[in-house]
Specification:
- About 45% of the residues lie in helices and about 15% in strands.
- With about 300 residues, it is of the alpha/beta class.
- The relative contact order is 0.14.
- The protein is built from 13 helices and eight strands.
- α2 packs across α13, α3 crosses α4 and α5 packs across α9.
- It has an eight-stranded mixed beta sheet, with helices on both faces.
Length: about 300
C-alpha cells in the first residue's frame, strides 16, 4: 500500500511539473502549491508574509492575472491566489459542475485549510460572485475588499447576458468553445480597450492552460453560469448588507464591453464605504493598467491598515 501511494504521489508531481513547462517563470516566478478537493487538485500560490491578500480570478484567466500585484504586495503581505478547478494549473475534470457556487465552496475549503484570517479580498469577473459570497457569509474574516469589473445580482433579464447564454447553449456554441479555444484566444483579446497592451507572449500564458477539448469544459460550464446561476447571484445580493460598510476600493475599466459602466453605479449606490477609480481600459484592468492600479491599492491599503 505504501509503495502504491508513493507511485501515485510521484505520478502527480510528474504531471504537475509537465503542466508547468510552458509557464513563463520570468513573468510568474512563484512556487506552486496544491490542495486536494473531492473533485481534483486545486493549484494556488502563497507568497510573502504579513496581512493576508487573497486574489480571486474569473474566466478565462487564472492566478497569472495577478502576477504583478503579487510581486509587489508579497514584499509586505502574504499573497494567496488560486486557480479554480478547470483553470490555470489546477486539474480540469470534465465531470466537475464548474458553477460559481461550486468554485466558491472550494475557495472556502482553501481558506479553512490555510487558516486565513483578516483577509483583504481582491476579486474580478466571475471571481466577484465566487469571492464575495464567502465575504457575505464570513464578514468578520474579511477586512477589506478590492473589486475590479464584476457583478453580484440577477442576470436573467440582462440582454447582453441572454445573447451569450443563447450561443453557449447552442450546438455551434458548444463546438466553438470546446474545439477552438475561443474564450482565451478570441474573447480575451476582444476584452482589451488598448490591444497593444496584450503582448503575444502574455496572451500565450492565457491560452496554454487549455490545450485541447477535454481541458476546456471549465470555460464552457462557467460561461453557461452567467445566466444559469442567476438565482444564486441574486440570493447573494439580497444578503449584501453583511458587507455593506466594509472598506471597498473599486478599480473599474470604463471601456468594458462585457460588464458595462451602469453596473458600477449599482455597486456605488449599495456599498457605502467605497472609493472608485475609473480607467480608460477594458475588462482586464490588471493587464492594461497594472502599475496605476497597484499604486492605488497600495495608497488605499495604507489608509485602511
Amino acid at each position: 500500500m505504501k509503495h502504491l501511494l508513493k507511485i501515485v504521489i510521484l505520478m502527480t508531481l510528474h504531471t504537475s511539473a509537465q503542466a508547468q513547462q510552458w509557464v513563463d517563470k520570468n513573468e510568474y516566478p512563484f512556487k506552486s502549491n496544491y490542495f486536494q478537493t473531492q473533485d481534483g487538485q486545486l493549484h494556488y500560490i502563497d507568497e510573502g508574509e504579513g496581512n493576508i491578500m487573497l486574489f480571486v480570478h474569473g474566466t478565462p484567466t487564472w492566478s497569472f492575472l495577478y502576477r504583478n500585484y503579487i510581486k509587489e504586495f508579497s514584499k509586505t503581505h502574504r499573497c494567496i491566489a488560486l486557480d479554480h478547478l478547470g483553470f490555470g494549473l489546477s486539474d480540469k475534470p470534465q465531470d466537475f459542475i464548474g458553477t460559481p457556487e461550486a468554485h466558491s465552496k472550494n475557495l472556502s475549503l482553501l481558506i479553512e485549510h490555510l487558516e486565513l484570517t483578516n483577509i483583504t479580498l481582491v476579486v474580478h469577473d466571475f471571481g466577484g460572485p465566487i469571492g464575495l459570497s464567502y465575504a457575505i457569509v464570513n464578514p468578520d474574516n474579511v477586512k477589506n475588499i478590492v473589486l475590479f469589473n464584476t457583478w453580484l445580482w440577477s442576470t436573467v433579464e440582462d440582454k447582453d447576458a441572454q445573447k451569450i447564454d443563447k450561443i453557449l447553449h447552442s450546438t455551434i456554441g458548444n463546438f466553438i468553445y470546446l474545439n477552438t479555444n475561443f474564450s482565451p484566444s478570441i474573447l480575451f483579446k476582444k476584452a482589451f480597450f488598448d490591444k497593444k497592451k496584450l503582448k503575444k507572449s502574455i496572451h500565450k500564458q492565457y491560452k496554454k492552460p487549455f490545450p485541447n477539448k477535454r481541458n476546456r469544459y471549465g470555460l464552457l460550464n462557467i460561461g453557461k453560469s452567467l445566466i444559469g446561476s442567476s438565482a444564486w447571484y441574486e440570493k447573494q445580493w439580497k444578503q449584501i448588507n453583511s458587507i455593506k460598510h466594509k472598506p471597498l476600493l473599486i478599480l473599474w475599466g470604463e471601456q468594458d464591453d462585457f460588464i458595462k459602466t451602469n453596473q458600477l453605479e449599482k455597486w456605488q449606490k449599495t456599498l457605502l464605504n467605497q472609493k472608485t477609480i475609473r480607467y480608460q481600459a477594458g475588462h482586464f484592468v490588471q493587464e492594461e493598467k497594472a502599475e496605476e492600479s497597484i499604486n492605488e491599492i497600495k495608497n488605499w491599503m495604507e489608509e485602511h491598515e
